[in-house]
Amino acid sequence: MSAPINTIQALNWALDDAMAADGSVILLGEEVADPEGGGIMKVSQGLSTKYGARVRSTPISEMAFTGAGVGAAIAGMRPVVEIMLMNFLAVCMDQITNHAAKLRFMSGGQTHVPMVIRTMTGSGFQTGGQHADFLEAWFCHTPGIKVAMPSNPADAYGLLRGAIEDEDPVLFVEHFPSYWNPGAPPARGKAIALGKARIAKAGKDVTLIGYSRSMHDILSVEKKLGADGVDCEVIDLRTVSPLDMETILTSVSKTGRAVVVHEAVRSFGVGAEVSARIHEALFRELRAPVERVASKDSPVPFAKQLENAYLYSHGDIEGAVRQTLKS
Amino acid sequence: MTNTELPDARTLVAIYRKMAAIKLNDDRFISQIKAGRLVMPYYSARGQECIPAAISVLLTDADYLVTIYRGIHDMIAKGVPPKLIWAELAGRSTGSCKGKGGPMHITHPQSGCMVTTGVVGAGMPIACGLALAAQLRGEKRVTVTNFGDGAANIGAFHESLNLAAVWKLPVIFVCQNNRYAEHTSMAKGTSIERISERARSYNMPSAHVDGNEPVAVHQAAKIAIERARGGGGPTLIEATTFRFNGHLIGDTGEYIPKQEYQAALAADPYPRYRNWLLQNKHATAEELSTIETETAADVDAAVAFAFDSPLTEVSEITRDVYASPA
Ligand SMILES: Cc1ncc(C[n+]2csc(CCOP(=O)(O)OP(=O)(O)O)c2C)c(N)n1
Ligand SMILES: [Mg+2]
Questions:
Q1: Under an 8 A CB cutoff, do A131 and B118 touch?
Q2: The whole model's pTM is what?
């Protein structure tokens, strides 16, 4: 077994390998080239030195360079656009939801936009209301764009390769507070196709469904519950849109119970969609209503004690599981 | 320093007092962060003090300010009480925003600090709206909106300049050009050397000043503010300056050429202005050291106020999301 690596390294490998494999892959974003530091988190470090003008630092002009990604993709390039933080997607929303997502359909299939928009987010650093939101539901609610959200270094590598190879636009959301967590290294050169969830742990009593940050919490709560004799099955969605309903429904028809966990706020979130689909498909087989665990319906607060309270706790996940076990 | 239309000694000293308050609070924020007593991303404006100090002596509480994450200097100059800022950063219920906003979103309408944004360029359209409200109501107040050199490349800047010019809004756009946007030098990301020149394409008057010269900033601001108050519409002021503590605390600044940094440090506006006041007899050494002693005591009091205040209750999380609590 080779040494563990972190997500920054995994993403850097994915970009490097994709650029080496396909000359049409280009990177656009603020500070992504080496003279500006190779990305604020060093994800693209070394790539401008290696690939020259294919890696471009941009002005602070999200609408222009995201739109440029759309145009370049239509013209046959494979742009990977980096938006420094997820909240700043709001600045270039029009290019993403009105254009990237819809051009294939509106052109009757004549053009398409095989671009990747990489971004990162996550609370925990007291950055307040405009720097830590999980906004994936906005994009899941837009037909035509896919949303991938890895939870570990190996998936980050494989899913980013898969996103770049995908023929549709993909929003690729990274959880930056876990960037430095070590994990098993990826199989270099192998893409993970979008749209397929992963069983992170097999079990029989209850299905825990998560993605991105919540996988860390689910896996730690699952251990505790396991010690108490509750055998959880854990699903890492990996791709949030489109949802891998086959994996979800197979698991929940076995366990009869499900809990969905995400850092995004609760109302109108991914958890609501997953829950609805499970209820629609398995109403008679469910032993308990599907539970949702999510952040409070509030902007991300600044003060530490409020920020802690904003996010769900491990106790909330455990409580939700125990709730499903009551019936 | 030019002596044409020199403000009176009282104004010159008032500018110094604001600069001292900005500098001493900034020093203390940094030492409290390093001591682990404050946790936050902190975008120090050390080096940019004299821009808001020289502008704010021309404003009253009724005038509006819209500023950015690197904006605590703007707030202090405008009159936001430092103790409310300190309590905010310490997550206390007595903070300007009850600890909900933090350093990037401090708001204090009593002193005219209406919006602080963490999204580059986003304050300018809002400044237009504040000014529109004043214009429609026939109020004399003006709106000052501060932003960086990097923000001049975002669409909101261009749209706002055009809108303000078309509607003759009483806005003063103040670009605090510290030559860098995070790690990107201005030359790398901006198509023009002087951001002030962009005003011309929007048919807006502009000024380019040395942002390290309080008198020059004051003069340009005076013209712009009088124009706005008199119904003459907006102005773009570009004030060139430097930030000595990097993009945020922890930034090691390796992207800044050493010579450039040394030259900027040699032109540090704070000691330079102090010396200039003394040499030209606008103030006595005793006067200035009294200001410094009083300001240091104010900082001590603000820090004590913050840490003696109760932490914001966790139940606050669902309040202020809508008009009525959930
Ligand atoms: C729309 C948007 N894009 C990117 C960022 C990340 N970011 C924060 S500050 C900054 C640099 C801004 O530079 P400038 O406008 O020159 O202001 P300064 O920080 O130098 O005062 C960037 C890119 C952001 N906050 N908002
Ligand atoms: Mg700047």
A1: yes
A2: 0.96
